[in-house]
Structures are given as structure tokens and as C-alpha cells.
């Protein structure tokens, strides 16, 4: 109620507000001030509902490298370690869930006041849910679906029509349509994909033929009969750009411009000239081999409410603790005479009130700028794995939300455009080759629970890529230009009023999946035995995405489980040595 009132008031006054969220990690400068107990983001623990994960085709999982085996339930007497995870994005949350399921003790330390990292959202003072970015779930997000099923929230995903929709200027909407039925029977992979690419009106006939030639001679064909072999071939293509690969296989420039560039921007915020062929073909092999992989799903509301809060509930219900506003400023460590380094603690908390925390195992589940700031400089010199991380860079991106007083994408019925009682228009992720935003959606339609508001219309969420030229623009200028381009696409929007906007700029978001970058992605296991990495930028076979982050968390947790016996005995040995040293320090005659 309050939410709607705030919004209506803003609308009545015709107010336009700007919310800027410059995402930055905390400064690594450590002051030696007083230490305080960190606030745990409190929520009552409750019984967690579990969803039926088979509903999203988990049986279709293609490769072990993309969906690791479940660990065995913990054996009696198996070591249960205390784990400190730095970073409360999906990778950190996924690591925590896996370890809690094994009975481990887990604390998450997140620098911001909310969890979720790049998938987070927050509510502004007027009740608007501001997202860090537009998030879409492909049908091949097997690790994320599994995580959501554990937390009982698979039902929060709304399945969209099995089409990828391209919006060209002046209301010209064209589909890449994967729906394929013969005599009422659904036809699946790979035929539905062939049909989609052969029939799409987004491409001219010659471009369609060239497209088919390129895809037909790609490792995707091998993946149909030999998924592991196909994946190996795809990994080997990391050194070339998608454009180079595509053109050398007969593809045409025009199909890059009209179709593949918007898709590449949506996947990696890069165009086809700058994204690696590995990145694009990883997704396409799923699309070609699994019927539902290309089906798009979107949350029914905001990520904070519909995805992250349930995961946090799951974590707390199992005794995990989530500390927010608890950025890690420094990793403390010691190096033994034999050169082995061991983390001894973390300095976390707000500037001037840092606290020293200790655990058996430490995980840095960070983004690229975060890990670069956190790693002790000496580790770079000592270990190549850490040094290579500094070759990775983040891509800037801008997300704009625009609220209208009607339905922007309703191209068929003019009366519906103005009818604010029911949402109308295109209910799917939308791509465009004609605007500076590559993908967008009307959240009031796609994710109505938090975003449809009676008396208000579309909430367009547009992702601007490449964002570099616009990072220095004012938010008002960005909103005005985005609004202009929305109207350029949709004649239906031309008589409407934009009533509100917000702009979120992220100066370093996904790691740049440019040719050759895969080499620099670190393994979850590191040369420091009790220090592990997670994060979508770390080595995992999926692209930088929610699925990649979740997978990296699983891989990280399983590496910890594998190392647990050695880590436990090392920790016990250290404790025994410390106890002996303490006993030797007791002055003669003192009571012990
Ligand atoms: C605009 C946009 C749109 C996107 N769209 C999609 C999509 O449609 N589909 C999809 O699958 N993916 C999408 N993604 C990608 C997806 O959001 C990310 O790949 C994923 O969320 C990364 O998760 P992560 O946990 O690896 O990293 P992050 O989410 O970056 O989490 C890292 C966390 O570490 C915290 N941190 C950093 N330093 C410290 C420190 N020193 N101490 C404590 N905490 C620290 C950060 O605050 C952050 O919470 C999109 C991303 C963006 C930006």
C-alpha cells in the first residue's frame, strides 16, 4: 500500500527522480580503530519450502563440467569447518548453501547494506524497486534452478513465450521463433532451432543461408552427439572473436548487425567483434542441443524479494550468518619457512570499526574489481594464479528504468495503451539493433508483483551497452536519450508521458569476455591452502552470468569439501603448537 501511495504521489506531482548507484568496493585502507560486533542482517528463521526441480528439466543437464555431481551426504565424523565467505553475491550465497548442507559453519561478509551483488535490488525512499540490471534466466540455468528449488522459489520464475524478440524502429517487431509443432506435436532440438533460424524475418534470405552455414559447421554439431567433445572444441575457440569465427565460417556481416550484436551485448555487454567465440558458442550449443535452453524466464517481481530473500532465509534456517555493511579490508596471513602461506584472519567492517574475524577456511566470492583490491600484493609476486587475475577487466554498463503513463509496447490496440487497469504489450525480453540499449523489457508486464502498479503504466528497464560513451553523461541526459529511443522504437509510446526514471551505472560489471581472456580466469582452489575463490569470473564452463556465479559457488564448495581433511589436520596441528607455546610462556610458579 505504502509503496503504491509513494509512487502515486510522485506521479501526481509529475516528479522525476534520479537514483544513482555507483557501485564501488570498500577502500582497502585499514584504520586501527575500535572493533565492534557486526550487525547480522536479521530475519526470523523459518521452515523452507522446497520446489520440484524436475519441473525445469534438470534431467536434461548436458555436461558434468556444467553441472557437478552432488557431494555425498556428510559421513559421521567428517570434518566440519568454519568458513568465512567475503562477498554476498550469488557466488557467495551458492557457496554458503552447499557448505551449510554439509553441516559446515558459515559466515558471509558483504560490503554493501544488501546482498545479491550485481543481481541485487533495493527499495528507494518512494518505494521503487531499483535493480542493478535486467536479469533473464535461460532454460539451461540448471545450477541456479537447483539452488532456487532448494529455497522453494522456482515458482517465482515466469516462463515467457519461446521466442527471442527483436524490436526495430517504428514498431517493426520480428521474432526468432523456437516454437515448432507438427500436427500438434512439439518438435524439439535441434530441429526447433533450425526452424527458428531458417524462418526468422529479422534476417534477409541470403543472411539466413549464411547463418545456417556457419552454425552448421560449428562445434555445436559435434555437441549434438558428443557434448564433452563439443565443449572442448568450444573452449579452444576462446582466442578468436565471434565475428572472426562467424565470418570465416560463411556468416554475413548483416546478420551480425541485425541479430548477433544485440545478443552478444545482452550476453556479455560486448559486440561480436569484441566477444570471444567461446562465450557465444557455449550458449548456442545449449540452444541447439536442449529444446528448452533458449526459453526465457523472468522473476515475477524484484530480485531482492523473489530470489535473494528466500536464499538468505535458507542460509539462516541452517545456522548461517549474513553480515552486511561488513566489507573486508584486509586478508591477514603468515608464510612458513617452507614457503607455505596460510590465511590467519580477515579485517572486516566499516572504516574505523573493523573487527578481526577468524575461521578455518576463507573464501573470496568477489567481482573482478573486488578481488583485485583484496588480494595481498605479495601474493601477486609469489603466485602466477593470483597475478593473472589482474589481466581481467570489468565492462561498464548502465541500466535505466523509465515509468510511463501508458503501455509502451502495446502496438496492436490503441485503447489498451491508455488503459491503466491492466498491463498490455510485449511480455518478454526484447532485443534491439536500432538503439543504444541492446536489450530491455517492460517490467510491469514481465515481473508484475513488484512492478505493476495500478494507475501507472510501463516500467521499461533498458540496458545500455556499450556504456563507455555515456558513463560521464548526467542521469537526466541518459534518461532523456533513452526515452527518445524508446519512442523511436514504439509509435505506441509517442503520446505517452515519462513520469519517473532511475539510472544505475556500474563502472566494472561482468569481466570482459574478450578473445584470450579465459586463460586468466583463476581456479576456485588457490596456492594458499585455506583460501578459495568463487565468483562468475572464476574458472567455470558457463559465461559470466547468474548461472556461472552459482556454478562457481558449487565448484568452490566442493573444492573445500575435498580439502577439508587436510585443512582440519593442519588447523589442529597449529592449535596444538599454539597451546604448547602458550604453556611454555607461563611464568614459573604461576597457577595453570
Ligand atoms: C546490468 C546487468 C545485467 C545482467 N543480466 C544478466 C542476465 O540477464 N542473466 C544472467 O544470468 N546474468 C546477468 N548478469 C550477470 C550476473 O548478474 C552476474 O554474473 C552475477 O550476479 C555475478 O555474481 P557474483 O556473485 O559472481 O558477483 P557479484 O554479484 O559482483 O558479487 C560480488 C559481491 O562481493 C561484494 N564485495 C566486493 N568487495 C567486497 C569486500 N572487500 N568485502 C565484502 N564484500 C565485497 C560486492 O558488494 C558484491 O555483493 C547481469 C549483470 C548486470 C550488471
How does this structure look, described?
GO terms for molecular function: 9,9'-di-cis-zeta-carotene desaturase activity. Pathway: Carotenoid biosynthesis; lycopene biosynthesis. Its EC number is 1.3.5.6. It is found in: Plastid, Chloroplast; Plastid, Chromoplast. This is Zeta-carotene desaturase. It is a single chain. Mean pLDDT is 89; it is low at 1-45. Strand 3 (121-123) and strand 4 form a beta hairpin. This protein is 35% helix and 17% strand. The protein has a seven-stranded mixed sheet with strand order 8-7-18-19-20-17-21, sandwiched between helices. Strands 12-2-1-16-22 form a five-stranded parallel sheet, covered by helices on one side. A three-stranded antiparallel sheet has the order 5-11-6. It is globular, with a radius of gyration of 25 Å. It contains 19 helices and 22 strands. It is of the alpha+beta class and 592 residues long. Flavin-adenine dinucleotide is lined by residues 25-26, 86-92, 109-112, 117-119, 132-136, 327-328, 365-367, 370, 374, 397, 399, 463, 506, 509-510, 535-536, 544-549.
Task: Label this structure with key terms.
35% helix, alpha+beta, binds flavin-adenine dinucleotide, 592 residues, 19 helices, 7-stranded mixed beta sheet, 22 strands
Show the helix and strand layout.
Elements: H1 2-12, E1 82-86, H2 90-101, E2 105-109, E3 121-123, E4 129-131, E5 137-138, H3 142-150, E6 157-159, E7 163-168, E8 172-177, E9 181-182, E10 185-186, H4 191-199, H5 205-216, H6 219-225, H7 227-235, H8 242-248, H9 253-268, H10 277-289, E11 296-299, H11 303-317, E12 321-323, E13 328-335, E14 341-348, E15 355-357, E16 361-365, H12 368-374, H13 377-382, H14 384-389, E17 397-404, H15 414-418, E18 430-431, E19 437-442, H16 443-446, H17 448-451, E20 459-464, H18 475-489, E21 498-506, E22 531-534, H19 546-585
Helix pairs in contact: 2-11, 2-19, 3-19, 4-5, 6-7, 6-10, 7-10, 8-10
The protein binds flavin-adenine dinucleotide (FAD).
Residues 25-26, 86-92, 109-112, 117-119, 132-136, 327-328, 365-367, 370, 374, 397, 399, 463, 506, 509-510, 535-536, 544-549 line the site of flavin-adenine dinucleotide.
Amino acid at each position: 500500500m505504502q509503496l503504491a501511495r509513494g509512487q502515486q504521489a510522485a506521479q501526481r506531482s509529475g516528479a522525476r527522480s534520479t537514483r544513482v548507484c555507483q557501485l564501488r568496493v570498500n577502500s582497502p585502507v585499514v584504520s586501527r580503530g575500535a572493533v565492534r560486533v557486526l550487525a547480522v542482517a536479521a530475519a526470523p528463521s523459518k521452515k523452507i519450502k522446497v520446489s520440484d526441480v524436475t519441473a525445469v528439466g534438470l534431467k536434461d543437464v548436458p555436461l558434468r563440467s556444467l553441472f557437478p555431481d552432488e557431494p555425498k551426504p556428510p559421513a559421521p565424523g567428517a570434518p566440519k569447518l568454519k568458513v568465512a565467505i567475503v562477498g554476498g553475491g550469488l557466488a557467495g550465497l551458492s557457496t554458503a548453501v552447499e557448505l551449510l548442507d554439509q553441516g559446515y559453519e558459515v559466515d558471509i561478509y558483504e560490503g554493501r547494506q544488501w546482498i545479491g551483488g550485481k543481481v541485487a535490488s533495493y527499495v528507494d525512499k518512494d518505494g521503487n524497486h531499483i535493480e542493478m540490471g535486467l536479469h533473464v534466466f535461460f532454460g539451461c540455468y540448471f545450477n541456479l534452478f537447483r539452488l532456487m528449488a532448494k529455497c522453494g522459489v522456482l515458482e517465482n520464475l515466469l516462463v515467457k513465450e519461446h521466442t527471442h524478440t527483436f524490436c526495430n524502429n517504428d514498431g517493426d517487431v520480428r521474432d526468432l521463433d523456437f516454437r515448432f509443432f507438427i500436427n500438434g506435436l512439439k518438435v524439439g532440438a535441434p530441429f526447433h532451432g533450425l526452424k527458428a533460424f531458417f524462418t526468422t524475418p529479422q534476417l534477409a534470405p541470403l543472411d539466413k543461408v549464411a547463418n545456417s552455414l556457419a552454425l552448421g559447421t560449428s562445434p555445436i554439431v559435434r555437441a549434438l552427439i558428443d557434448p564433452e567433445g563439443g565443449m572442448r572444441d568450444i573452449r579452444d575457440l576462446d582466442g578468436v572473436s565471434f565475428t572472426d569465427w562467424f565470418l570465416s565460417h560463411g556468416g554475413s556481416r548483416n546478420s551480425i548487425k541485425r541479430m548477433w550484436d544485440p545478443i552478444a551485448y545482452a550476453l556479455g555487454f560486448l559486440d561480436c567483434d569484441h566477444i570471444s567465440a567461446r562465450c557465444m558458442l557455449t550458449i548456442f550449443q545449449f540452444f541447439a542441443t536442449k529444446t528448452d535452453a533458449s526459453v526465457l524466464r523472468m522473476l515475477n517481481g524484484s530480485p531482492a524479494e523473489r530470489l535473494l530473500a528466500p536464499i538468505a532465509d535458507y542460509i539462516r534456517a541452517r545456522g548461517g550468518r549474513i553480515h552486511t555493511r561488513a566489507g573486508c579490508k584486509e586478508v591477514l596471513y603468515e608464510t612458513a619457512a617452507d614457503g607455505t602461506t596460510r590465511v590467519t584472519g580477515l579485517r572486516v567492517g566499516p572504516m574505523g570499526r573493523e573487527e578481526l574475524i577468524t575461521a578455518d577456511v576463507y573464501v573470496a566470492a568477489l567481482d573482478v574489481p573486488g578481488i583485485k583490491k583484496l588480494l595481498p600484493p605479495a601474493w601477486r609476486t609469489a603466485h602466477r594464479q593470483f597475478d593473472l587475475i589482474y589481466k581481467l577487466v570489468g565492462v561498464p554498463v548502465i541500466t535505466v528504468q523509465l515509468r510511463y503513463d501508458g503501455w509502451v509496447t502495446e502496438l496492436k490496440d490503441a485503447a489498451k495503451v491508455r488503459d491503466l487497469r491492466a498491463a498490455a504489450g510485449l511480455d518478454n525480453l526484447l532485443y534491439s539493433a536500432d538503439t543504444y540499449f541492446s536489450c530491455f523489457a517492460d517490467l510491469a508486464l514481465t515481473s508484475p508483483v513488484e512492478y505493476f502498479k495500478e494507475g501507472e503504466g510501463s516500467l521499461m528497464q533498458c540496458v545500455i551497452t556499450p556504456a563507455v560513451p555515456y558513463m560521464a553523461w548526467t542521469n537526466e541526459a541518459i534518461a532523456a536519450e533513452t526515452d527518445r529511443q524508446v519512442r523511436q522504437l514504439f509509435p505506441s509510446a509517442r503520446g505517452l508521458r515519462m513520469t519517473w526514471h532511475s539510472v544505475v551505472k556500474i563502472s566494472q560489471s561482468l569481466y570482459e569476455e574478450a578473445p584470450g581472456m579465459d586463460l586468466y580466469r583463476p581456479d576456485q582452489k588457490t596456492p594458499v591452502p585455506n583460501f578459495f575463490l568463487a565468483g562468475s569470473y572464476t574458472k567455470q564452463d558457463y559465461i559470466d552470468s547468474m548461472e556461472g556465479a552459482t556454478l562457481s559457488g558449487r565448484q568452490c564448495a566442493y573444492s573445500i569439501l575435498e580439502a577439508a581433511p587436510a585443512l582440519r589436520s593442519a588447523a589442529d596441528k597449529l592449535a596444538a603448537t599454539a597451546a604448547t607455546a602458550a604453556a611454555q610462556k607461563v611464568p614459573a610458579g604461576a597457577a595453570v
